[in-house]
Amino acid sequence: MKDAAMYIPTYQDMLDAHERIKPHIRRTPVRVSDYLNDLTGTQLFFKCENFQEPGAFKVRGASNAVFGLDDEQAKAGVATHSSGNHASCLSYAAMLRGIPCNVVMPRTAPQAKKDTVRRYGGRITECDPSTSSREATFARVQAETGGDFVHPYNDPRVIAGQGTCAREFVEQTDGLDIVMAPIGGGGMISGTCLTLATLAPETRVIAAEPEQADDAYRSFKAGHIIADDAPKTIADGLLVPLKDLTWHFVSNHVSEIYTASEQEIIDAMKLAWKHLRIVIEPSSAVPLATILKHRDAFAGKRVGVIITGGNVDLDKLPWTQGESA
Amino acid sequence: MKDAAMYIPTYQDMLDAHERIKPHIRRTPVRVSDYLNDLTGTQLFFKCENFQEPGAFKVRGASNAVFGLDDEQAKAGVATHSSGNHASCLSYAAMLRGIPCNVVMPRTAPQAKKDTVRRYGGRITECDPSTSSREATFARVQAETGGDFVHPYNDPRVIAGQGTCAREFVEQTDGLDIVMAPIGGGGMISGTCLTLATLAPETRVIAAEPEQADDAYRSFKAGHIIADDAPKTIADGLLVPLKDLTWHFVSNHVSEIYTASEQEIIDAMKLAWKHLRIVIEPSSAVPLATILKHRDAFAGKRVGVIITGGNVDLDKLPWTQGESA
């Protein structure tokens, strides 16, 4: 994508995406908790994208790409690299259309995510857990298979697809002051900006990021993309850097990026499990962690939080790791 | 209740209950999973009562009792005995109305459930984990406080309240062949029978019970109430026996009772966490465990499963107990 002229997806692209993917995704429900509202002094609304069949919002962008291919393009299938959920969601969408899907994944990705990719018929090629290794391995795989490259986030089809989530969220709530999502590569945040800029321009978009993978935060403050190589965080969906297309949306429309520590993320994750009674992965807990940390910024506000995914290894929960070690 | 003339709640009582409690409960969503449908060969619909604010369906019956008291009766508050969720839900409803709530709980009840009762202002008196100790302790507490006795299940107000869940379930689904719920004392099953007998008489009601607390199963087969004293099962919400009022509904309207072993319950619980991505307590997993066990009885059917509660101790999950012991 780097070399191509950058196409910025439009609001109409998002509307078209929504029509295209509706048969293949769920209109996920919104959860509220009086307990968490009291605890934070805000009104929180959680959009449960962990309830998508493959367990993550990424089925939106992936389905938009897969079902947007013409029949000729579709024969060679699709290919991607991903830290996990994009891989399983692209495999899922490809399975629904009956076309091949090749994915490059870090060998350190959670076993649960690898299992999910394979269950949906995706073919995994493993790489080292660094951006450089991932990109080199992918170039080789794509050359061999000829599949259409669906980048996990730096792709207008993917961003337009992710933007359908914010459209539903606006319809399901009666006005939000803020919409939050975790930020890794920035696909969901970009889609959210794309949709809200037209549909609810008064609603601010705030991103949340692990302190230990804070390249988006540092990019945002510096005014240009800064990439980490091989960051480490429990929020394994947020390891990747911004790219030109997502940087466009982040730099133009995001109001603020907040960060949280590993322990704050784990605590927020456990709190969500306990009081929302939903299974969410660590990445999805980062917004709640930052709300608890930056209480004054959210006090009295109506805050929508996109719960991005729920694929976790139930045998290795972060709050029991200390005990079993 | 044993000595009073037994009042059988009617369909109109359920409709009245629904009007009374609507401001105090959530209309919980229904979850589906293609994965679990494929695995079981059925179409499964899960009604997420774990998403009620206090984490269990029992807020329906408890709210109906609390908000049905006249102002004079309400002054002395309410009192009950419960293995957990009825206690927290009655405390929650009493807190909403601003009246006292006294509860007798087995000292072996999960810490998470005790914490919840106290968070809602309920006053706990502990007893031994047997039906006999529970009833003796309660008699003393009730004599001291004078609170209106809201039995966890053998109370027409409670059964009418629980029946509101099945009403929503029918509205939310397009016809069900079977509705299932776990059975302990039989409150939810009775409310379900009450509602479906009028609203969807062609829908069969099937109960699910732990093998290690199978008094309802044995009662059903024998044709009269058989009670265990101090049964042991991980499904801690299902330890209590049937009583006259719930026996009326079970004996007249339930089609079948299936049982599952402890390991089958744990496996089904983990499966629900993984694929529905919701936090459910062991009791709520018993129906899915029996569906997996008695596959032929459910094959090709549209089966509604009431997920009764989601209050678990996240530090003590059953599938990690073996490892840490």
Give the secondary structure arrangement, pairings included:
Two copies of one chain form a homodimer.
Chain A: H1 11-21, E1 30-31, H2 34-40, E2 43-48, H3 58-68, H4 71-74, E3 78-81, H5 85-97, E4 101-106, H6 111-119, E5 123-127, H7 131-145, E6 148-149, H8 156-172, E7 178-182, H9 187-199, E8 204-210, H10 215-222, H11 244-253, E9 254-260, H12 262-275, H13 282-293, H14 295-298, E10 302-307, H15 318-324
Parallel strand pairs in A: 2-10, 3-4, 3-6, 4-5, 7-8, 7-10, 8-9
Antiparallel strand pairs in A: 1-2
Explain this structure.
Chain A has two domains: 11-56 and 156-317, 3-Layer(aba) Sandwich (Rossmann fold); 59-149, Rossmann fold. Chain A has helices at residues 11-21, 34-40, 58-68, 71-74, 85-97, 111-119, 131-145, 156-172, 187-199, 215-222, 244-253, 262-275, 282-293, 295-298, 318-324, and strands at residues 30-31, 43-48, 78-81, 101-106, 123-127, 148-149, 178-182, 204-210, 254-260, 302-307. Chain A is 48% helix and 15% strand. Chain A has 15 helices and ten strands. Chain A is of the alpha/beta class and 325 residues long. Chain A is globular and about 55 Å long. Chain A starts with 10 loop residues before the first helix and ends with a helix. Chains A and B meet through helix 12 and helix 15 of A and helix 12 and helix 15 of B.
